[in-house]
């Protein structure tokens, strides 16, 4: 079941949106402040984000900025009470895919969400391949021998970056930077942990260690 992240601090509206999305067949993960939303986006994959701008512990624009800085292309539909044109422009310029102003009708929100998903899923993103492993950046999925492999968002991100850099060695610091969001630090050994997990799931030859240098994707077959 596809999962949507709902970031909304209004309890009544949050419950109503969760129910409406559930009736349409989506699973909903809800958070009420900017920091918790940023944290859950680090290691979870969502098909879309419904994002309020007026949040505690930061703003919706902070959440959006950290996503786009990390090249997270998950579609974002901003839902907010700010109806000034300048606010809409700021949100769209920051990387939002669409904008809807409160109060809005349930059916309009659902229609806008479906439209955003159609547009983003229509983008053609090259599939990256090595031997029996395929990485589909557009769908954030990886396959081994044609079978989908369950990867966390960070595991997938490291795999994607290494596949995109085929022929080059990436240092631990470079890969660690790819996992940082909005200045959030990650542990010094976290890259090694994710590489270990990738090898366990995809085989030892997919990610190769260059001692003293870093990691690279496996050689061409």
User: What is the number of domains?
Assistant: 2
Structural class: alpha/beta
Number of strands: 11
Oligomer state of the chains in this structure? single chain
Order of the strands making up the biggest sheet: 2-1-3-4-5
The H-and-E topology, N to C, reads as EHEHEHEHEHEEEEHHHEE
Helix content: 40-55%
Major beta sheet summary: 5 strands, parallel
Shape verdict: elongated
Gyration radius, rounded? 19 Å
Number of helices: 8
Condensed summary:
The chain is of the alpha/beta class. 41% of the residues lie in helices and 20% in strands.
Describe the structure.
- Helix 2 runs parallel beside helix 3 (60-69) and helix 6 (153-164) packs across helix 8 (190-202).
- The protein is an alpha/beta fold and 221 residues long.
- The chain has helices at 11-23, 34-42, 60-69, 85-93, 106-121, 153-164, 172-179, 190-202, and strands spanning 3-7, 27-31, 48-51, 76-80, 98-101, 128-130, 133-136, 141-144, 147-149, 207-210, 214-217.
- Helix 1 links the parallel strand 1 (3-7) and strand 2 (27-31).
- The strands form 3 sheets. It has a 5-stranded parallel sheet, sandwiched between helices. The protein has a 4-stranded antiparallel sheet with strand order 6-7-8-9, covered by helices on one side. A two-stranded antiparallel sheet has the order 10-11.
- The two termini are 35 Å apart.
- The model is unreliable at 181-185 (pLDDT under 50).
- It has 2 domains: 3-121, Rossmann fold, CATH 3.40.50.2300; 128-217, Arc Repressor Mutant, subunit A (Orthogonal Bundle), CATH 1.10.10.10.
- The radius of gyration is 19 Å and the shape is elongated.
- It is built from 8 helices and 11 strands.
């Amino acid at each position: 079941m596809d999962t949507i992240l709902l970031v909304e601090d209004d309890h009544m509206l949050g419950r109503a949106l969760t129910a409406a999305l559930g009736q349409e067949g989506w699973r909903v993960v809800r958070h009420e402040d900017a920091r918790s939303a940023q944290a859950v986006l680090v290691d979870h994959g969502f098909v879309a984000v419904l994002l309020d701008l007026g949040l505690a512990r930061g703003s919706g624009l902070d959440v959006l900025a950290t996503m786009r800085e990390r090249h997270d292309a998950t579609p974002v539909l901003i839902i907010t009470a700010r109806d000034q044109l300048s606010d809409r422009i700021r949100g769209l310029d920051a990387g939002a895919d669409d904008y809807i102003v409160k109060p809005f009708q349930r059916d309009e929100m659902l229609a806008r969400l479906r439209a955003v998903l159609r547009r983003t899923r229509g983008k053609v993103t090259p599939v990256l391949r090595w031997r029996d492993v395929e990485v589909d950046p557009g769908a954030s999925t990886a396959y081994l021998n044609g079978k989908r492999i369950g990867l966390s968002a960070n595991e997938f991100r490291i795999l994607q970056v290494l596949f995109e850099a085929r022929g080059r060695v990436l240092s631990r610091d470079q890969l660690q930077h790819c996992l940082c969001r909005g200045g959030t630090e990650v542990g010094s050994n976290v890259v090694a942990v994710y590489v270990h997990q990738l090898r366990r799931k995809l085989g030892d030859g997919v990610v190769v260690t260059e001692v003293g240098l870093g990691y690279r994707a496996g050689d061409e077959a």
